[in-house]
Amino acid sequence: MGLFDMDALVVGAGLTGGVIARELAEQGCKVLVWDRREHIGGNMYDYVDEHGILVHKYGPHTFHTKERALYEYVCRFGEWQDYKLTCGAMIKGEFTPTPFNFHTIDTFYEENEATALKAELKDYFSGREFATVLEVLNAGNERIRKYGEFLFAHDYSLYTAKQWGIAPGKVDPSILKRVPLRFSYKEGYFDNEYQMMPRNTYVEWFKNLLDHSDIHVELGVEALEHLSVSEEKLLMDGAACKIPVVYTGALDELFGQSEGSLPYRSLRFEWCHEDIESKQPYPVTAYPEAEAYTRITEYKKMPVQNVTGTTYVVEYPLMYKPGAGIEPYYPVLTAESQRKAAIYKSMSEKISNLYPCGRLADFKYYNMDQALARALVVAREVIV
Question: Per the omega criterion (within 30 degrees of 0), is the bond before 328 cis?
Fold first, then answer.
């Protein structure tokens, strides 16, 4: 089935591309899906390693949302199981939960000081369960402010500098708001009503999502070898492209980086296996004070797997470079990068049959539920 037999082209077989392809197919459109990787599922791709442990190739993924409609949507294509992710950090040689909570205070403060700090936090942020580290750092209470400074010095500033490769002062404040401080002993990374993982695998879920007679998937296809932009027109192999194109890749690369490159962070994964029962108390643990890596994910704990030994991966962040054989994962959100991204967005809007969507194309940090919601919106906008 060739491109000219299709009603639409979707570039990317990850969550965004897969959902849009399915939505278009259910409207009676013949959809061709390209992905430059040799597998479906995008960054959610998982597999069983040689030790019999289910792992995620591109970093840990759990689905969480407060929206019942999004929960019901993902349940259409596979069975899920409840899974509440717990995370931690190692600071000064001690493990502590993240988001930081009253256990954190008990760990790093003497009893009398800890009691006073917890009481003042509850009073200062009366009626609230959380605050961002920025709020704590700017608090009018000196004891609370010093607590924020301790966490910023031993965790936030160090982790941010490694993760994003820039000084914390240049990072968009929304990044520092992602992991708040909790004013209780409650643990758990998310508070959404629906938190889960597939009962089997993400790949099986994607197979069901893409299992439609009007969806044709081609893997190992580099879209940018065929797609280009000239004079506000989308070209396919040098000729005008007549069909809608949903593009989920880095938008600056589609436009030949004519306005300069957009910064993305990538990751290098160091895979390890040990014949031990547990590497760390939390499935995902940040190591802000480690020299080069940011976190370790222990996969036998997400979901819990009854296996001997443990497989874990150490993440080393690095700057993404097109053509270097590494993946772009996170847009680096600064005032300058967002200004440049807005220019590319404006350029894309002048091409009537181009629909950028997803974390890379939108240059936004989406969680899985946010990516799903955005994909459903864009699917309704595509004119076939």
Answer: no
Locate all alpha helices (DSSP H) within 243-367, ordered by sequence: 251-254, 335-349, 359-362
Find all residues with CB under 8 Å of 335, minimum gap 6, and list them: 172
Q: What is the pTM assigned to this prediction?
A: 0.93
Residue 223: enclosing H or E segment and its boundaries? none
| CA–CA–CA angle 235, 241, 244 (5° rounding) | 120
Stretch 212-241: mean pLDDT? 95
* Closest by CA position to 282, among listed 96, 64, 49: 96
Task: Retrieve residue 313's tokens.
Answer: 């991966």
166 sits in which H/E element: none
Both tokens of residue 218? Answer: 């081609």
Q: What percent of the chain has pLDDT over 90?
A: 86
Report helix, strand or coil for 53. coil
Distance from C-alpha of 78 to C-alpha of 308, rounded to nearest angstrom = 28
Cβ pair 351, 345 in contact under 8 A = no
Buried b (16+ CB within 10 A) or exposed e, 260-281: eebbbbbbeeeeeeeeeeebbe
> In this structure, what are the phi and psi dihedrals at residue 105, rounded to the nearest 5 degrees?
-65, -45
- If DSSP states are collapsed to H, E and C, what string results for 350-378? CCCCEEECCHHHHCCCCCHHHHHHHHHHH
User: Given a cut of 60, is residue 142 above it in pLDDT?
Assistant: yes
Asked if 165 contacts 317 with a C-beta cutoff of 8 angstroms, the reply is yes
191-to-66, 85, 118, 179 alpha-carbon distances in Å: 8, 10, 21, 12
CB atoms near residue 253 (< 10 Å): 19
CA 212 to chain centre: 27
